[in-house]
Amino acid sequence: QLQLQESGPGLVKPSETLSLTCTVSGGSISSSSYYWGWIRQPPGKGLEWIGSIYYSGSTYYNPSLKSRVTISVDTSKNQFSLKLSSVTAADTAVYYCARHEGDCSGGSCYWGPLDYWGQGTLVTVSS
Amino acid sequence: DIQLTQSPSFLSASVGDRVTITCRASQGISSYLAWYQQKPGKAPKLLIYAASTLQSGVPSRFSGSGSGTEFTLTISSLQPEDFATYYCQQLNSYLPLTFGGGTKVEIK
Known about the structure:
Radius of gyration of chain B: 13 Å
Strand content of chain A: over 45%
Structural class of chain B: mainly beta
Radius of gyration of chain A: 14 Å
Largest sheet of chain A: 7 strands, mixed
Helix content of chain A: under 10%
Oligomer: heterodimer
Largest interface: A-B, 23 and 24 residues
Number of strands of chain A: 11
Distance between the termini of chain A: 39 Å
Shape of chain B: globular
Number of strands of chain B: 11
């Protein structure tokens, strides 16, 4: 059974960089046709897709966050990571990692639903 | 960006009721739509993808329909464990992947 687990600091100061890691177990992050994504949810609010990465390193980001986001992958550790720079209180949220299908080999991309999720981790931005 | 508008945003219903939630897309997305259920303090759970395909293990009382810009999630007979918030998500090839604002289903 595939499992995803987020880890990282629960408190980040304003203007600093939020860093989270998602560890995948029960399956390989190098599986073809699967992307690994980050989604966040501010307290009491809805869901926002941050971005996704393929095991090869190809990344796709939400344009609203693209200037501040970096997603990377470490296949040797079966992990992928999120860095969000210059954080403010508006970045306070539960951050989830998740898996979804994807295929961008044909010029345009096909995206599948988010079928496996981590439990989520609350990150608070505060001094 | 493709905007998804869910209605209603809040729904009060009784066990055994038939419940329908609507998701409207700001432009056509064919059948590239998924539905998720989220309970308090938990990650969302995939219910339906490709607008109408039931995810493995999801009870058959859940069903989805629609294409283009209008989609529905129906729960044929609401059970106590179905009280939750439901989100739609569009999976069109053009990014970003976006979610609807959510529909909270509460006990009447």
